[in-house]
Structure formats: C-alpha cells, structure tokens
Amino acid sequence: MTYDVHVRDEVNRQGVALQAELEGARPTFGAFSVAGYPDLRSGVETFVAFAQSGATVLEMGAPAADPWLDGPAIAAAHRRALRGGDGVSTTLETVRQVSTLSDRPVITMMYWATVLAYGPERMARDLASVGAAGCLVPDVPPTYVPPWATAAAEAGITAPLLAARGASPGEMSAACRPATGFVYAPAAAGQRTGYSAGIDLDDLASFVAAARRLAPTTPVLTGIGISTPELAASAVRQCGVAGVVIGSPLLRALADGGLDRAIPVVERFAASISQARVG
Question: In the β-sheet with 28-34, what is the strand arrangement from edge to edge?
C-alpha cells in the first residue's frame, strides 16, 4: 500500500494535540497494545475501545520478531500479530484507521531494527501520512539519534526517546535533549515490560528529576513496572511525571478474555490516574 505524504499540516495538528495533552492539567494515561493483535480488525477495535474507556494517548507497538524490551505478555502479542503479515504495513494501516475513528493522539513504538530496515526518512513520512503524532524508538543508537530526530521533525511527527536507567551522564543527555514530544523514563531499573515486583518511587523521582534537568521543557512519561492503578497514581503524585503508559496489564487482560476483560482494567487505571493530582 502506498501512502500520500502531502499531509504535514494535519500531522502537525496531531502533534499539537499530543503536546496539549502532555502539558495539560490532567495526568496523561497512555494505553499500549500491539498493532494487529490479535488481528488487524480486532486491533483497531481495541485501540478505539481504549480511547473510549479513558486512555488519553494511544501507544501502538509495531509487531517485531525480536521485541527485546518486552516481557511475556507483550512478546506473545508481537508473535500473534506477525501471523497476519508484515509488521510495518499492519502498523500503518492500524494508525490510519484508529486516527480516523478516534481523536486521541497515536504514538507508535518501534524498535530500531524495524525503522532501519524500512528507512528512517520513509518511516517518518509514512507515519505522518496516516496520522501518527509521533514514534518512540527505544533503542536508537546514539549516532543515529540526530538524523532520526531530523527525519521526524521534517515529516511533522515527534520523536520521543527512552532514557535508560543506569545510563551515564552522557548517555542521559543524548537521550533527553533531542527528544521531542516526551522522554520515556522506565519506572523499574533493568527490567522488561510486565515487571510487577514493585518499584522504588524515590529512586524513580530522582531519575525523572535528572531527565527534567537535561530537558526542562519536555514532559516525562513513565512505564515498565507500573502494575496497578494505585501504583500509577502514586507515580504521578510523587515522581514528577506528566503521566504513565500501561501495557502488560492490558495485554494480559486481552489474552484472558478480550475486550470484555480489558476494558474494566483500562477504566480502573483511567480513574486512578485522573484523580492522582486531586488535592
């Protein structure tokens, strides 16, 4: 499928919507799933239902053969989605449909191997053409960060980056300063998605503060280790983040019982996060 790339004004409006959400008074609740899981149609329905159930940003994983950052629940969703065909095509079509059916900003999450194989400039342009607000690539090699950020900016999408726990000061600077849209700060150090053994909120607060010193005007979102609605609210209250992204609890619910099981989980997270700054 060929996508029309002459839509930068519309994509910019998506970016403005994302910025308004991240900088608004309410905490952001990003709901994650994998494009094409369990199939293309159902995947679209999932993201639309998440938006209708309280998610304020939709984070969409591009199916990948080696999702190294992801734990069992999300990795299984990657494998299932890949049965439906090419991961990039599935992602682009899912973004196109979801951005038409919902007004929530859509951020894709892609591994660098996927972006590099497709072509960074082409990827940024094609994501822009289908209505994505941005693309988080958690493992961009440092030497590729500037050209990737430039490609995203020229296409009219944001380029969030992951600030790795345990990174050196130079590595932190390289991840935080060029990031656009937001910086993603993992809540749990050295863990994959789905980790649920608890997090040190004081440690996370210190890490977020370090990221904000490097990029004071860029919002920080957290995830990985945020396993309950109560913990999500605590992270917002205590750690200086603009919001949280929830993935594995939603994927586990989808695997257990589809949207009938997942929607109540989304609603519980949405309610807890939305009240996190009350008082």
Answer: 134-136, 106-109, 57-61, 28-34, 243-246, 220-223, 183-186, 161-162
- Give residue limits of the domains in the chain: 8-274
Which is catalytic among the residues 70, 93, 154, 203?
70
**Rounded CA gap, 230 and 256, in Å?**
22
Q: Using CB atoms within 10 A of its CB, is residue 261 exposed (0-12), middle (13-18) or buried (19+)? A: middle
Taking the C-alpha atoms of residue 55 and residue 62, their distance in angstroms, rounded to an integer, is: 19
Q: Is 177 left (phi over 0), alpha (psi -120 to 50) or beta?
A: alpha
Give the tokens for residue 56: 């304020």
In this model, does residue 8 exceed pLDDT 60?
no
State whether residue 218 is helix, strand or coil. Answer: coil
Residue tagged active-site, from 4, 9, 10, 59: 59
59 has catalytic annotation: yes
pLDDT tens for each residue of 187-229: 988 767 867 778 899 999 999 999 999 999 999 999 988 999 9
The pTM for the full model equals 0.93
Class of the CATH domain delimited by 8-274 = alpha beta
